[in-house]
Amino acid sequence: MTKILGISGSLRKASFNTMLLNQAAKLTPEGVQFEIGTIKGIPLYDGDVEDADGIPSAVQALKTRIMDCDGLLIVTPEYNNSLPGVLKNAVDWLTRPPADSPRVFGQRPIAIIGATPGNFGTTLAQTAWLPVLRTLGTRPYFGGRLMVSRAESVFTVAGDITDEAVTAQVRKFMHGFVEFVQSCR
User: Fold this and answer.
1) Rounded distance between C-alpha atoms, residue 16 and residue 146, angstroms
2) Could you tell me which residues come within 8 angstroms of residue 104 by beta carbon, excluding any fewer than 6 positions away?
3) What CATH number is attached to the domain comprising 141?
4) What are the tens digits of pLDDT across the range 37-77?
5) CA–CA separation, 51 vs 2, rounded Å?
6) What percent of the chain clears pLDDT 90, i.e. is strictly above it?
7) Domain region containing 118
8) Number of structural domains in the chain
9) Rounded alpha-carbon distances, angstroms, from residue 115 to 81, 105, 118, 148, 171
C-alpha cells in the first residue's frame, strides 16, 4: 500500500494550510494510506543544542515518519513572498546529522501545495522551496500546481472546502501525486 505523509508548514490552529492538508487527506485516492505529521514542538535550530543534547525527540519522530512514507506532501504558507521560517527550520533539523539527510530526503517523491488569504496563491513560496528540495536530493512532483487563493472564502470555519472547483483541483492533484509516487518505486 502506498503511504503518503503530509505536513502543514503553519503552527496556527485555524491555519488555511492545515485545512488544505486535511482536505488533501480526505481527497486522496482509495487504497492509499495518508498520515498527517507535525512540525509542532521542533525548537529553533541551534548547533550548540545539537552538540549538547542531540536531536530533539520531535525531530526524530518526524524524521522516522518521513523515512517510513513513500511520498511527502508539504503544505506551505507564503510569508513575505517566500517560504515560512518554521517549516524551513524543521527541514534544517531533519537534515541533522548530515549523514541522515539522504535517508530522510534522498530520492523521496515530494509535492508542495499551499493556501493563502491573498490573491496570488503561494507561487513564490512554492518556487522558493525548489532550491531546497534540489539540495536535499528529492524528487519533486511537477505534474501540476495547487495554490488556493482567497482561502477565507474557500474554507468554512470547520475547515471544509466550499468551492467545488477547488475540491476538484485538490482531488486531481492528489491523484496525480499518488501516481507519481507509485511510479517512483
Assistant:
1) 13
2) 63, 66, 67, 94, 95
3) 3.40.50.360
4) 999 999 999 999 999 999 999 999 999 999 999 999 999 99
5) 36
6) 99
7) 2-183
8) 1
9) 13, 24, 9, 4, 15
Q: Are 113 and 20 in contact (CB under 8 A)?
A: yes
- Report yes or no: 65 and 106 within 8 Å, Cβ to Cβ: no
Residue the block writes with cell 509542532: 40
In Å, how far are 20, 55, 75, 138 from 24, measured between CA atoms? 6, 30, 10, 21
Q: Which three cell numbers stand for residue 125?
A: 513560496
CB 175 within 8 A of CB 144: no
The one-letter amino acid code at 166 reads V
DSSP string, 24-38: HHHTSPTTEEEEEE-
Q: Give the number of other CB atoms < 10 A from CB of residue 142.
A: 10
Q: Label residue 110 by pLDDT band (50, 70, 90).
A: very high
Model-level pTM greater than 0.70? Answer: yes
